[in-house]
Design a protein that fits this description.
Length: about 110
């Protein structure tokens, strides 16, 4: 186990489980969160080495969460989204400090 902590933030439980299980099976410690409140609780308990953040959460905008993350820390963030046509969101996410932007469906490898 490498000890790196990955936080997966997605409102879809199946997606959280899929991503989380993949990384856990590859030696990472994984936490999951369905929303911004849970994201903050997890980060207050243990800093993450990487955050995988869904852009379209049920009651929140991932870009708003990205703004908070980038202002509070230097943790790398990978944005995931099912919205393929949101080029302005892609640009904004990268400008806010996201390290990558991946559209669903994607290969976990």
């Amino acid at each position: 186990m490498n000890g790196s902590h990955i936080l997966v933030v997605d409102d879809d439980p199946a997606m959280r489980d899929l991503i989380g299980t993949y990384f856990a099976h590859n030696g990472y410690e994984v936490s999951t969160a369905p929303d911004g409140s849970a994201l903050k609780r997890v980060l207050n308990a243990r800093p993450a080495d990487l955050i995988i953040l869904d852009l379209q959460l049920a009651k929140e905008n991932g870009l708003d969460l990205m703004r908070g993350i980038s202002s509070d820390s230097q943790v790398p963030v990978i944005i995931i989204t099912g919205q393929r046509r949101d080029e302005p969101d892609r640009v904004v996410a990268l400008e806010l400090g996201a390290d990558d932007y991946v559209t669903k469906p994607f290969s976990l490898r």
